[in-house]
Design brief:
Number of helices of chain A: 18
Main location (chains A, B): cytoplasm
CATH architecture of the largest domain in chain A: 3-Layer(aba) Sandwich
CATH superfamily of the largest domain in chain A: HUPs
Pfam families (chains A, B): HIGH_NTase1 (PF05636)
CATH topology of the largest domain in chain A: Rossmann fold
Shape of chain A: globular
Protein name (chains A, B): tRNA(Met) cytidine acetate ligase
Subcellular location (chains A, B): Cytoplasm
Oligomer: homodimer
Family (chains A, B): Belongs to the TmcAL family.
Chain lengths: 377, 377
C-alpha cells in the first residue's frame, strides 16, 4: 500500500479539506491518506474550535484513513519547526509522498530554499522588524519571489525540511482553491476555516461549507474556544510567578517577561493584553504562542527534551488506515501507541497531556489519559 | 484620645458588627474604634463578598473610625498566627484596649492559655486527627473547657499572643449576641455573616440584617465571590507546575503536592477537588488556605520574609480616626501609608498586591496600586 501524508489542523474540517484529501490521493496514486494533525492548539497558539477527537471523527468520515497527533511541542511553533516536526513523523510512517496546499504550487520551492540557505535568525538582526519580514526582504531581492501567503510559507518550510533530512518521499504541492485564507465570509461550498469559525461565533449558517460530520460536531459546542477564556490562567501565572521563573519559559527573551507581567497586571481582558505587549519585533502569532508556553509553564529545557523524543499518538483510523499501520509498524523507529497510559501522561506525552488539561476550559472530555482511538468501520 | 482596637473581617459588615463596635467603645471608654480588617481574603482563605474598599466604606459609616488592612500573610492563617499578626499591628497603633467577641466571655482565657502552654504542633503528632482536635482533647482533659466556638478560639489566641509579647493594652471580651455563627437563616435584625452571604447568593432579602451602607455596597455586586470562580487558576497552577516547584509552596507538606496535582487533573470543579483532597489530618480551612497559597505561588521563604516586615496600610478614616493617626504617627515603628506606590507593589506589599490581582476575578477595581484611602467627613 502507498500512503500520502498531509500536515493539517482541520480547524474545523471543511469542504476545501475534503477536496484536498481527494486530490492528494489522486495526484500521488496513494491507497491511504495519512494526516498528521495538530492536537488542541493551532500553529498560532490558539485553541482549536473542536477538540482533536471531534476533528479526527470528521476527517475519518471524509477520506482520511489515519490521523496521528502532531504533538504540541511541534504544532505550536513557527513554520520551519512546525514543518520539520511534522515531516519527521510522516517519514517515520513511511509515506510515499507528502501533499500540501500552496497558493503558488508552480513555484520551484527547492530553488527558493537554495537561494536563502545562508539566512538564519542570527544573520537577520534588525530589531525593528520581525524575522519573517527581514527574511522576505532578502528572498525578494535574490529571487523576485515574495513569500507572503501562509500555505506558500509552509510549502517552503516542507521543502526545506525534506531537503535537510534527505527524505525520500515525493513532495506534491496542490493548488489551493477558491476562498482566500483571510476571507471572512462564506460565499459557497468552499470557505476558509476562519470564515467558518467566525460564522459559528456569530451564530450564522456555515453548513454549506462543511461536510455533515463537521456540522454534527459543531452542533455540540456551546462556545467557540478562544484566548479570552484562557486569559485568567495566563494572567495569574504572569502575575504570581517571579520574573526569574518567567524568564525560564520557552522563547521568553529580551525582557518580554517584564513586559508581559506589566501588561497582565494592567489588563483585565486578553485583547487589551495582547495589543499592549505587541511590538514591531514580534508577530502576534509569536506572542500568542508565547502566551501558550507561559500558561503551560513550558520551560526551555523541557521543550528541548520533548523535541528529542518524538512519538506517534494514533488518534484514529479506518480499516484501510489500520491495514497500513499493520504494514509499517515494524519499520517505525519511534514509540507508536493508541492510548496514553498513566506513565506516559507524566512522561513521554506530558506536554500534550498538560495542553489537554488546559483545553478542558472548553470541554469536560478527558483529552488523553486512556482515551480510546476513533475507529471508523 | 483613647482607642479600642478590633480584629475584623466584616464579611459583610452587619448589624451585629455595629452593635459590637458600640459595645467596644462603651465598655473600654474609647474615643475611637480602630479596626484591623482582613483584605480581600478571609481567615479560611475564601474571597470576601465585597472588596476591602466597600467593606471599609460600610464600617466607617457605622461607628468605626479607622480601618487598617490586615495583610494577607497574617489574614489567611490559622487562629494563632492570625491573632498574633493582628495584635502586633494594633500594638503599633497604640490602642488602649482590644475588644473581641466571644461565645463565652466569662471564661478565664489567661488561665486556659497557661494550662496549655506546653502544647504545640510538635507535641501533637497523631496523623489521624487535625491539630485543633488534638489540642482540644488535651485542653478539655486539663481544664474541663471545650474550645469549640470560633470566637472563643480567637479569644484564646488573642490572649495567648498578648501575654507572649507582654502587650500593655487591656483585653475586653464582648458577649456575642443572638445568632449562631453557623446559623444559615436570617430571623431578625441580627444574623450571621454567613447567613447574609447565603441570602445574597440565593437572591433573598437580607436588608433587615445589615445597615444601609452595606445594602448599598451589596447592590453593586453581580456574583458572590467563591473559589468556584478562582478554581481555573488554581487548577492550572497545580497541573502545569512541576511537583518540585509546588512543594516549595508555603505549608505544602507531606506529599500534599502530589495529592493536589492528582485531584486537580481529575476535577473540573472546586467542590469535587476540595472533597477529593480532604483527609482526617487537615481541616477544610487549612486546605482552602493552601489553595490560596498555591494560586498566589506563595513560597515558604517569601512568606517568612513578609511576616518579618509588617506595615500599616490605612484603608480609610473618619475625622476622629484622622486625629488619632496624627496623635500616634510618631510612635508607630513600622511603615504606615495611605497609598501603595509602584515600588511598594513589587516590594513591601507584593503579596497583598498579588492577592488583589487575583481578586480582580470579581471586580475590575484596582485593589492597591495608587488606590486612595476612603475618607469619611
Amino acid at each position: 500500500m502507498r500512503a500520502v501524508g498531509m500536515v493539517v489542523e482541520f480547524n474545523p474540517f471543511h469542504n476545501g479539506h475534503r477536496y484536498y484529501v481527494r486530490q492528494a490521493k489522486a495526484q500521488t496514486e496513494a491507497d491511504v491518506a495519512v494526516a498528521v494533525m495538530s492536537g488542541n492548539f493551532t500553529q498560532r497558539g490558539e485553541p482549536t474550535i473542536l477538540d482533536k477527537w471531534a476533528r479526527t471523527r470528521a476527517a475519518l468520515a471524509n477520506g482520511v484513513d489515519l490521523v496521528v497527533e502532531l504533538p504540541v511541542f511541534y504544532a505550536c511553533q513557527p513554520a520551519h519547526r512546525f514543518a520539520a516536526g511534522a515531516l519527521r513523523l510522516l517519514n517515520e510512517l513511511g509515506v510515499s509522498a507528502v501533499a500540501f496546499g500552496a497558493e503558488h504550487p508552480q513555484w520551484d520551492f527547492a530553488q527558493l530554499v537554495r537561494a536563502t540557505a545562508d539566512l538564519d535568525q542570527a544573520t537577520l538582526k534588525r530589531y525593528t522588524a520581525t524575522y519573517a519580514t527581514q527574511f522576505n526582504d532578502q528572498l525578494a531581492q535574490r529571487t523576485g519571489v515574495s513569500l507572503q501567503a501562509p500555505n506558500d510559507i509552509l510549502a517552503f518550510a516542507y521543502t526545506k525540511a525534506a531537503r535537510a533530512h534527505n527524505y525520500q518521499f515525493d513532495l506534491q504541492p496542490i493548488q489551493r482553491v477558491a476562498s482566500d485564507y483571510h476571507d471572512q465570509v462564506i460565499k459557497g461550498a468552499i470557505a476558509s476555516a476562519s470564515a467558518i469559525r467566525q460564522a459559528v461565533q456569530d451564530g450564522e449558517d456555515y453548513r454549506q461549507a462543511v461536510p455533515v460530520a463537521t456540522d454534527h460536531e459543531l452542533a455540540g459546542i456551546s462556545q467557540v474556544p478562544s484566548w479570552g477564556q484562557l486569559y485568567p490562567m495566563l494572567r495569574n501565572q504572569l502575575i504570581q510567578a517571579p520574573v526569574d521563573q518567567l524568564c525560564q519559559t520557552y522563547q521568553m527573551a529580551e525582557g518580554l517577561e517584564y513586559r508581559m507581567k506589566e501588561f497582565a497586571e494592567r489588563s483585565l481582558d486578553f485583547a487589551h493584553f495582547i495589543h499592549g505587549i505587541k511590538t514591531k519585533r514580534y508577530t502576534y502569532a509569536h506572542l500568542i504562542r508565547l502566551c501558550l508556553y507561559a500558561t503551560l509553564q513550558m520551560r526551555e529545557e523541557e521543550l528541548g527534551d520533548q523535541v528529542r523524543h518524538p512519538y506517534l499518538h494514533i488518534l484514529g483510523f479506518t480499516p484501510q488506515g489500520q491495514a497500513y499501520l499493520h504494514q509499517v509498524k515494524k519499520t517505525v523507529g519511534v514509540p507508536m501507541f493508541t492510548k496514553v497510559s498513566q506513565e506516559m501522561k507524566d512522561g513521554l506525552c506530558r506536554l500534550d497531556y498538560r495542553a489537554g488539561k488546559l483545553y478542558q476550559a472548553f470541554t469536560p472530555v478527558e483529552q488523553d489519559l486512556k482515551h480510546a482511538p476513533v475507529i471508523r468501520r
